[in-house]
Design goal:
This protein is of the alpha+beta class and 398 residues long. It has helices at residues 38-48, 58-61, 92-103, 228-242, 267-275, 361-369, 375-387, and strands at 2-5, 8-19, 27-36, 56-57, 62-64, 70-79, 118-127, 136-143, 154-161, 167-174, 180-183, 188-191, 196-205, 218-223, 247-251, 254-258, 278-279, 286-290, 295-298, 303-304, 307-309, 314-320, 323-325, 336-338, 341-347, 353-355, 391-392, 394-397. Helices cover 18% and strands 39% of the residues. The longest helix is centred in the middle third of the chain and has 15 residues, at 228-242.
Length: 398
């Protein structure tokens, strides 16, 4: 028995025994008082409390409409390669080089250029929301021709455009590939993928994207995964936090939010307070299987009705041992090949495993482990359970 008194835990522990000096007729047990400090008490309370389910922040499960990354793309040349650039079969690198030289005031004959230290590349980048002019971006450089390697090259100035054909950034700098490619006439060696690389911080932002949150009275919050229950919980959490009908549901994938009057000129502060709210998202019961890798992922909410499962492997071995039939001497026969096939069929004896109704994920795993199945065997078992109508979850095969 234990009671909480004055911030300490006083318990009675049976365990100190005193023997009588006269005769071993009886044994007396005296209580021992144990005083535990507040740290020990806190540890004990944490161990006794059930596990709490903490929710996810709204910023982790949803995003505001219009606040997203934008893709940029451009064409460029990588120079300074050690003979590993595009060959003469690729025409557009030479055309690009001639055009670049002419813009610099240098006139050359296109037929006189036979270089192998340049490569035509496609340059891509992601422009984050609210990026400011002068900020830098990482860019990805990928070969477009038949260049063998971009290692050691330098990307010349390449404008990066958005979907509206406007230039938002300009990229230039040394290309990092973390790979190599060397070879001769009879042998070659290559590590990783040398025809693609990055230019860390190689793009300089020249144009900003307009601020979509400035002076707005209505905001739209889009869930990463549409769900009626999750959307309802998000709206309830927002209304409870700001004490009013601030959020309304439009569909299971979005929540319409009216900016309160006191936050009309402080929309950024309002969004920051809103994103920190925690919501317990509702997860759809789903089993995802990848037949190529044998990977199976089952969610916590997966339930199985009462079903009996038995799985056995059937092994078939076919061995061909053809023999040659040679006729005797002076016989008027021909040499023929006689087929000989050895066939062995072995079927494993397995037990029948019962899974009761409402079994959770742990019980399902333990029941299937008793059958000794492999992940690839489990693919067929889960499909059979789903076909039998006993799997109360969505089955997704990749």
């Amino acid at each position: 028995m234990a009671v909480l008194e004055h911030g300490y835990l006083r318990g009675e522990v049976a365990g100190v025994v005193k023997k009588s000096t006269q005769a071993p007729k009886s044994v007396q047990v005296e209580p021992v008082k144990v005083n535990l400090g507040w740290k020990s008490l806190l540890l004990l309370v944490l161990l006794l409390l059930p596990q709490l389910a903490f929710g996810a922040r709204i910023k982790d499960i949803a995003a505001f409409d219009g606040v997203r990354e934008n893709q940029l793309i451009g064409y460029g040349l990588v120079v300074g390669l050690n003979g590993s650039g595009d060959s003469d079969q690729t025409k557009f690198p030479v055309q690009s080089l001639v055009g670049a030289l002419e813009r610099m005031g240098i006139t050359v004959n296109r037929n006189d250029i036979t270089v192998k230290n340049i490569a035509s590349v496609m340059v891509t980048a992601q422009l984050p929301p609210f990026a400011k002019q002068g900020n830098r971006l990482d860019v990805l450089v990928s070969s477009m021709g038949d260049a063998k390697s971009l290692a050691g090259g330098t990307l010349m100035m390449a404008p990066l455009k958005g979907a509206d054909n406007q230039v938002y950034a300009v990229a230039q700098g040394a290309v990092l590939t973390n790979s190599f490619s060397y070879g001769g006439q009879a042998a070659s060696a290559m590590k990783n993928h040398p025809t693609a690389g990055t230019v860390p911080g190689g793009a300089l932002i020249e144009r900003e994207i307009p601020n979509v949150l400035a002076s707005r009275s209505q905001l739209k919050l889009n869930l990463h995964q549409s769900d009626f229950t999750t959307a309802s919980r998000v709206a309830s959490a927002i209304n409870e936090r700001f004490q009013g009908q601030v959020a309304t549901l439009t569909d299971p994938g979005s929540v319409q939010i009216a900016v309160p009057a006191e936050y009309r000129n402080r929309v950024v502060e309002f969004v920051a307070n809103l994103e920190r709210l925690e919501v317990n998202p509702d997860v759809l019961a789903r089993v995802v299987m990848n037949e190529r890798t044998g990977t199976i992922v089952m969610g916590e909410n997966v339930r199985i009705s009462t079903v009996a499962v038995s799985h056995g492997n059937l092994t078939v071995v076919i061995k061909e041992s053809p023999k040659v039939s040679q006729p005797r001497a002076l016989a008027q026969g021909t040499t023929t090949v006689v087929p000989r096939t050895e066939l062995r069929v072995a079927e494993e004896k397995v037990n029948l495993s019962m899974v009761r109704e409402g079994a959770n994920l742990g019980e399902v795993v333990r029941a299937l482990n008793t059958l000794g199945v492999t992940p690839r065997d489990l693919l067929g078992i889960m499909q059979a359970i789903k076909a039998a109508g006993a799997l109360n979850a969505e089955l997704s095969v990749m």
